Amino acid sequence: MRGTIIHGPGDVRVEDREDPTIQKPTDAIIRVTAACVCGSDMWPWRGIDEIQDPRPMGHEYVGVVEQIGDDVRNVSVGDFVVGSFMASDNTCEICESGFQSRCIQGEFATPGGAQSELLRVPLADGTLVATPGQPDPKLIPSLLAASDVLGTGWFGAVAAQAGPGKTVAVVGDGAVGLLAVLAAKELGAERIIAMSRHESRQKLAREFGATDIVEERGEDGVAKIKELTDGYGAHSVVEAVGTQESMLQAIHSARPGGHVGFVGVSHDVSLPGETLFAAEVSLLGGPAPVRRFLPELIQLIWDRKIDPGRVFDLELPLGEIAEGYKAMDERRAIKALIRP
Amino acid sequence: MRGTIIHGPGDVRVEDREDPTIQKPTDAIIRVTAACVCGSDMWPWRGIDEIQDPRPMGHEYVGVVEQIGDDVRNVSVGDFVVGSFMASDNTCEICESGFQSRCIQGEFATPGGAQSELLRVPLADGTLVATPGQPDPKLIPSLLAASDVLGTGWFGAVAAQAGPGKTVAVVGDGAVGLLAVLAAKELGAERIIAMSRHESRQKLAREFGATDIVEERGEDGVAKIKELTDGYGAHSVVEAVGTQESMLQAIHSARPGGHVGFVGVSHDVSLPGETLFAAEVSLLGGPAPVRRFLPELIQLIWDRKIDPGRVFDLELPLGEIAEGYKAMDERRAIKALIRP
C-alpha cells in the first residue's frame, strides 16, 4: 500500500509500505476512504517537535472495514466506520466516565499512520463506530471531521461547559476552534465570541454560530472579552492553540467560577500556580475523548443537522499530500482532506 | 484597642492601635470573640512572603456586631456573626454563581487585621452571617473554623467533586487538609485517603473520616494512591499545601477525568502545560468562596453534626499570640485560637 512518512521538517513523502495485518484478535484493518492533515501535524513538519526517525503520519480517518480479528464483535467487514485517534476498550472505568482518550488499555489508534491506503486499528470494538449505512459521499468530509477536529472542538466546548445562557469565547481559529464554535452553538450557548483576525475564518465562524468576533490578542483580547461581558469575563472559554499566550488569554478571558476547556496540544506552556489560584477558573483539557461523542456526532451529521466538513477547504489525492502540509503551514488552507 | 502587627520575619507584636470606625455605610464594626493564626500567616512570618511595611495580621474571626453603617440590613448590633476573609456583596453575577471570594466589588474583609479586639468589615450585608442566636461557648472554635479553614477545606472537597461513590485523596495534613477530610466525609465520599506522616494528624484525620492513610510523598505517594485504586487514581484530590511538589502530587494522584481542588496558597508553583494536557484532570482552586458555604456550615455546627473546632490544639490570649505563630511554625500546634 501507499502511506505517508515524515522524514524531517518540511519533508513528507508518500511511499510504498507493507500492508498492515491483524496483530491481535481485537484489531481491525480498514481501507481509508478519507484522511486529513491535522494542525498538530504541523509541529513536526515545522521542526518544533523533533523527528528522531522517519515515521508514518496521520491520525484522522474514515473508511471501510476490510478485515477483523477473531474477537471483534461490534463492527463487521464492509461497515463504514469513523474512529478516534486514541484506541479505547470503551469498558474500563475511565472509558465509562467518558474519558476514552485515556483508556486504561489505551494506545494510539493509528500506529501505522492514517494518511495511507490501509490502516490497522487496535481495540476495534471500543474504538470504531459504524455509520447507519454507507454514507452519501457528500457526508464524507463531515464524518472525517468527527474523527478528530469536530470531536476535539466539541470536547473543548463541553469541558468549558458551554450551554444555554452562557457566553462562550473561543481562542484559536483553526479547524478545532471553528468547530468549537459550532459545538457551542449546538450545545445551546447564548453568545459565542470567536477570536480571529482572518476574514475567511471569521466568516466561517459566523456561519457556524459566532455572534461576535474579537480580533485583538493577548491582554488586549482579554480586555475586549471583559468589555463585551459587563466586566465579568466569559462563562466558558475554549483554548484551541496550545501556546503560552493563548493559554493565558483563555484563562484571563474567563470569569471567576468560569470554565476553560483547552484542546490545543500544549507546547512550552508553563502556568504559574499564582495565576491559576488568582483566576479561580476550572481548567480541563487534554486529548479529546472523541469516542464519547462519536455516536451523537455521527447522527447529527447523518441527519444533516451540522456540516463540520466545511472546515476542509482543500482536497488532494494522497500522492499530493505534501502540498496539503504546505498550504496549512502557510495558512492558505484551514484543513486539507486527503483521498487515498 | 489592641491588635497584632507583623514587623518582620518571626516578629509579630500586639500593639495599641486606633479603634476602627465606620468608613462606608455598608461597613460593620465587630468585637472579635475569637480569631486565629492561619497556615498562610506562616508565609510572611517565615520571611517567604516579603514584608514591605509593618502590617496588621489575621483574617479569620467570629464576634459580636458593635456598630453598623446606615445601609446595613442583614445583621444588627448584638448579633453573633461569622465572616469570610473576603468581603462580598453577595448579589453580583459572580457571587450568585457561588464565587463570593471573587465578588466584582470584592475586597479583603479584614483590612485592619482580625487578630485584634475590634474589626471593621466592609460589605457587611454580603459578608457576615449571623448565627441563630448567641452560641454556646463550646461552639466558638468550630464557628471560627467555618470562617476560613473549614470553608476552605470544604471548597477544596467541592471543587474536587467529592461525593457518593468517590475515592478522595487529600494532600496536606494542616487544618485545611484535615477539614477537607471532614468535608469529603460529609459530602458522602466512599473512601478518603489522607496523605500524612504525623501521627497526631493521622489520628484526627481518621476521626474526621479518613479510611486510609498514605505516608509516602511525591511520586511514591502517587504510586501508593494508584495501588489503592486499581491503578486508576483517585476520583477527587484536594491539594492543601501550595507547593510545586504537592500540586504535582495532587494532579498525578487523580485519575483521567478526575478532579483536583487546590486550596493551598500557591508559592513558586509552575505547571507545565504538557503535564496538565497529559493528566486530563479538572483543576479548580483559589481563595475559597467561604460565604457560599457559611449558612450550611453554621447550621451543621449549631446542630452538633460536625466539630471542626478540633483542629485548634492551642488556645492563647491575644497578648501571647507570638507563641501561637511559633508553635505553628514548629508544627507543635495544628492551629492556634486567639482570644482577644
From TrEMBL, chains A, B:
Keywords: Metal-binding, Oxidoreductase, Zinc. It comes from the Bacteria. CDD domains: FDH_like_ADH3. It holds the Pfam family ADH_zinc_N. Residues 25-123 form the Alcohol dehydrogenase-like N-terminal domain. GO terms for molecular function: oxidoreductase activity; zinc ion binding. Residues 175-299 form the Alcohol dehydrogenase-like C-terminal domain. Belongs to the zinc-containing alcohol dehydrogenase family. This is Zinc-dependent alcohol dehydrogenase family protein. It comes from Kocuria subflava.
